[in-house]
Design a protein that fits this description.
The chain is α+β, with helices and mostly antiparallel strands. It has one domain: Lambda Exonuclease, Chain A (Alpha-Beta Complex), CATH 3.90.320. It is built from 7 helices and 8 strands; from the N terminus they run E-H-H-H-H-E-E-E-E-E-H-H-E-E-H. The strands form 2 sheets. Strands 2-5-6-7-8 form a 5-stranded mixed sheet. A hairpin with a 6-residue loop joins strand 3 and strand 4. It is globular and about 55 Å long. The two termini are 31 Å apart.
Length: 237
């Protein structure tokens, strides 16, 4: 059986970043669909064609917070969810064999090691996707707590993209959201909310979403990036 992806390994961040520009990455999925609050499809096009460099947001306080929390969050996830083992390869890109223009670098590669609440078979593979962020009021949690969705709409396509690249069975989002203290009852401490959410590729609804995303990304890559035709508006599903 043909492997769903090939693994490209790089020894340093610079080489890894250079190769990333040659593929649509998981973070590109939401902008291409018009669902990103930060980036447009036109900006993705500019980056993939070399017309612009990716935005450098590494100096943002909450980006720094996320980087520092990454190893801690992985360990916490495994303690809270002892059904998995986790491997992490920060400079690997998994490239789809079906669609070589599609790649993904994962926050973690999961293997099911014991019986679990989702009925995932022991030995099956999945994706760990870590998220950190800031919240100040209840509505900032709505995308995670089920008020509107259980996975924010700008993150859901990212998980789908990773499933398309790997052919694996599931994605688990681990979200750690921090609110800085501002009320007397906070006693000077931040309030942390943690959410774990799963995309189960065995479900038909997810399979339908995967087919849709693959079609949209392929159209964007071939009719925009390869054809050198900058999109003038957001691309809708």
């Amino acid at each position: 059986m043909k492997e769903a992806f090939i693994r490209l390994h790089f020894d340093d961040r610079e080489s890894w970043l250079k190769e990333r520009a040659s593929h649509l990455q998981a973070s590109d999925a939401a902008p291409i669909l018009g669902l990103s609050p930060w980036t447009t499809a036109a900006e993705v096009y500019d980056e993939k064609t070399g017309m612009a460099q990716p935005k450098d947001i590494s100096d943002k306080p909450y980006v720094q917070y996320g980087i520092e929390m990454e190893p801690v969050a992985r360990e916490a996830f495994l303690i809270d969810n002892p059904y998995f083992s986790l491997n992490y390869h920060p400079f690997d890109i998994l490239c789809s064999t079906k669609n070589p223009w599609m790649g993904a670098t994962l926050d973690g590669e999961l293997t099911v090691t014991r019986p679990n609440p989702w009925g995932l078979p022991i030995g099956c593979k999945g994706i760990y996707e870590g998220k950190t962020g800031r919240w100040m009021k209840a509505e900032h949690l709505y995308g995670w707590d089920g008020t509107t969705t259980y996975i924010p709409q700008h993150y859901y396509p990212q998980g789908l993209h990773q499933l398309l690249c790997t052919g694996w069975d599931f994605v688990i989002f681990s979200a750690r959201l921090k609110r800085d203290p501002y009320k007397a009852e906070d006693m000077g401490f931040p309030e942390i909310r943690t959410f774990y959410r799963i995309i189960d590729a065995r479900k038909e609804a997810v399979q339908s979403d995967l087919r849709t995303l693959e079609e949209v990304e392929e159209r964007f890559w071939k009719k925009n990036v390869v054809a050198r035709k900058r999109p003038s508006r957001r691309i809708a599903i």
